[in-house]
Amino acid sequence: VPPAVPGVTFLSGGQSEEDATQNLNLINAIKGPKPWALTFSFGRALQASVLKVWEGKDENVAKAQAELITRAKANGLAAVGKYQGGLDSAAGGQSLFVAQHAY
Question: What sections of the protein cross the membrane (predicted)?
């Protein structure tokens, strides 16, 4: 990436939650100069497990909140290149690709 670019945003783009987190971690674990800011924008890769656990039921709110905290911690570690992997989540390894998805 040219140094003149002020920032780069990594998108999860249909990757599984675990793949997106691992890839974010790998990018941030690279040593050397990085003249640009790196951030990430995860939609499905942050919420798929949460929604799967919640199922729209009030009785599942606490479990869904715990799932969100787990995913947020994993991505927080990956954002600084310190994610070790192996978190078990409801949709962790499931592909989140949606054919012909339009934004």
Answer: none
